[in-house]
Amino acid sequence: MKIRIMMTEDIEAATDLQQRVYSAIPPFTQQQFESLLDHFPQGQFVAELDGKIVGLAVSLVIMWDDYSLHHTWNSVTNNGYFDTHDMSGRTLYGAEVCVDPAVRHHGVGHGLYEARRKLCRAMNLKRIIAGGRLPGYHKVAERMLPEEYAKRVVWGEIYDPVLRFQLGEGFNYCGILKGYLPADDDSLGNAALIVWLNPDFDADRPTVLPTTKLLQEGI
Ligand SMILES: CC(C)(COP(=O)(O)OP(=O)(O)OC[C@H]1O[C@@H](n2cnc3c(N)ncnc32)[C@H](O)[C@@H]1OP(=O)(O)O)[C@@H](O)C(=O)NCCC(=O)NCCS
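# coenzyme A complex -> structure
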C-alpha cells in the first residue's frame, strides 16, 4: 500500500471510492475536487493498493477561531469548494477520510492519518481538528443523546468504527457538533469534534508550505 499526494487524474477513482463508502452522503463533484486541488494540493492524500485508489484524506488549513464549536461541514469548506483554505491559520482541518470497505482494518486509515500528522509537523501547524462521523449513533438514538453515545465510546462501552479509530490515532474528543453534516443519516447529522496537538509546534516559527515533490518523497 502506498500513500501519495492526490492528482487531478485521481478524481474519477476518488469519486468512485466515495460512492462505495457512503450510501447517503453524495461524493464530491468534479468541480469540488478541482477546487480542492487548486487551493491546497499539498494537503490531499490517496492510498493506492495494486494500482487502485482505496483511501482518501482531504485537508485544508483554517483559522480555527473563525469556526469553533458551532461550525458545520458546509461552513468550514464553503459547501465543499474549499476556498476557506487560509494559510494564515495554524490549524489543519480534516474534511474527509475514507477507506474502501473491502480493505478496512488493515491499516490504510492509519497510513492516511500518519500522512496528515507528517504534513502538520512539516508545516509547523499547531494541530489537526476534524468533525468525526458517529455512524453507530442511529442504532441507539432512541435511548441516548449523541453526547452520551460519544462518552460511552470514549470509555470503551460502545464501539464506533470511526470515533474508536480516531481515538486510537491519538485524537482527543472535545464535544458534539450538532447539525454538522445533515446528509449523514447514520450519525443523524451529528459529529464528534476531535483534535490532535502537534508536539513539535513552534509558535515562533512561521508556517512552512512544503512542495508537493518534497511531500511525495517524505510520505
Ligand atoms: C474510519 C476509517 C477511515 C478507518 O479506516 P481503516 O483503514 O479501517 O483504518 P485502520 O485499518 O487503520 O484501523 C481500523 C481498525 O483496524 C485495526 N487494525 C489496523 N490494522 C490491523 C491489522 N493488520 N489487523 C487487525 N486490525 C487492524 C486498527 O487498530 C483499528 O482498530 P479500532 O477500530 O479498534 O481502533 C474507515 O472505517 C472508513 O472509511 N469509514 C467510513 C468513512 C467515514 O466515516 N470516515 C470518517 C469521516 S469523519
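# post-check
The radius of gyration is 16 Å.
The beta strands are 2-5, 45-49, 52-62, 91-99, 127-133, 172-177, 191-197.
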